[in-house]
Specification:
The chain is an alpha/beta fold. It has helices at residues 4-20, 58-68, 71-74, 88-93, 137-145, 147-161, 171-182; strands at 22-26, 46-50, 107-110, 124-125, 132-135. The chain has a five-stranded mixed sheet. Helix 2 packs across helix 6 and helix 6 (147-161) crosses helix 7 (171-182). It starts with a helix and ends with a helix.
Length: 184
């Protein structure tokens, strides 16, 4: 039987490996006071992305952050509640961050080997309240085909990290509401 000290050392090594597998991906310019043009890289948010994903998420993360810099888009937070009935904008306030800066707290990992990603319709997933989002291979097909939709999926998953559950609302209803508030 392992001693408590041995189990603690193993746990710390595991945490260190997780920390080493995440790298910041920063935008190159300072934040603008007005809503930037689509595709513009103007937000200085360090995104944390699993090394296995490399920089492939950068465009979708930047577009999601750009969309969330718009007040109308941020209204989507008031449209949903967590399992305890708290509005997501209230949960966001508890982080001390605003949108889009909150995206810098979300960790994006390669989820290609996870069971939910075996379903081609799942682009990314997380558990409500977790800051870790697992990105599926199918996400990147959509990212190439429809970058705006991919950015909305990033926002959809960010809502889950703030506590939003599914069924109800359905995944499609969540993404539809994001598109209504944030653009297509």
């Amino acid at each position: 039987m392992d001693s408590i000290a041995t189990r603690c050392r193993r746990a710390l090594r595991s945490l260190a490996l997780v920390a080493l597998s995440v790298v910041p991906v920063s935008s190159s310019r300072a934040e603008s006071p007005s809503l930037p043009e689509p595709g513009a890289s103007v937000l200085a948010i360090p995104f944390f992305v699993d090394r296995k994903l490399g920089g492939t998420l950068r465009g979708s993360l930047e577009e999601a952050a750009r969309r969330l810099s718009d007040e109308k888009c941020r209204e989507v937070l008031a449209d949903f509640t967590d399992g305890a009935g708290h509005r997501l904008d209230e949960n966001l306030a508890g982080t001390g961050k605003g949108m889009p800066d909150y995206l810098g707290l979300v960790l994006f990992y390669d989820g290609s080997r996870s069971e939910p990603c075996e379903n081609e319709r799942v682009l990314a997933w997380t558990k409500p309240g977790s800051r870790a989002v697992l990105v599926c291979e199918s996400f990147f097909r959509w990212q190439r085909a429809d970058p705006g939709y991919a950015a909305n999926i990033v926002i959809h998953e960010a809502l889950h990290t703030l506590g939003l559950r599914e069924s109800p609302p359905s995944p499609g209803d969540i993404t539809k509401r994001v598109a209504e508030r944030c653009g297509r």
